[in-house]
Each structure stands twice: as structure tokens, then as C-alpha cells.
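Next comes a single protein record:
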Amino acid sequence: MDVWYKADVVFDCPYCHQRGSETLIANASRPNPAGVMENIRKLVIPLHCQVCKKPAPDQQPFQIGMNDLAPEDLSKLNLKLPENPAFPSEKPCPCGLHGKAYGDCCQGKGTNAMGSAMLMGTAPHHPSRCTGAFRW
């Protein structure tokens, strides 16, 4: 079962002197807010001010406020999950776990199947197992 978080990234823009903010929705395969927050820190660099549209300097300090999302809150957001890119069924499955063709292995088994996740670029690669973040 995935755990979902709403993260608000906030910083003071050094150019327009306004407060820049961005909201992201992130998920992980297990509860690990610290690991998800670390992945969000990597994802939002470089920061861009939503007011003046300029990129913030590399070392610009920022804060992340994060809240758990209950299933009913998540359903209200109407998130459109990325679709799997087209991949030939007869080619070897990207997961490489069973030595099968994609059509006989992970195709059609949802976004959490390893081969499908790898095609979308969301395969877990960090101990937090943060499998995706969506800019809101």
C-alpha cells in the first residue's frame, strides 16, 4: 500500500523579494517521511520563483512542509498518473527479473510492476522507496 504526502516547498526569492512556493504530491511504498523529504529536496533543485519566474541561486535556502494525505484527500485531487510509454511486448522486460518478454512479465500489471515503473522512470532507487512526485 502506497503512502501519499503533500509537500509545500517555500523560499524567499532574492530577485522579486516575494515568497515562492510550490506544492508537490509524493508517494512511497512504505511510511518514510524523512526519505521522501530528502527525495523532494533533490527534485525541486533548481528552485524557480512562481512570481518572477527566475531560477533561484544554487544555494538558496528553502523549507519543506509535509503532511500525510488520507485516501479521501488524495481522491479529491484528481491526479492523472503518468501512463506507461509505448514499449514492444516482444522485447525483454526492463525489470530483467524473470528473463521474459515484457508482454509475458510486467506489461498490464499496473504502475507498481517493476518493468512498468522502470519504463516510467519511477523505479525505486533510494532507501525511502519514494516512487514518484507530482508537481501540483
Summary: The helical segments are 33-44, 71-76, 114-120. The longest strand covers residues 3-12. The chain has three helices and four strands. The beta strands are 3-12, 19-28, 63-69, 130-135.
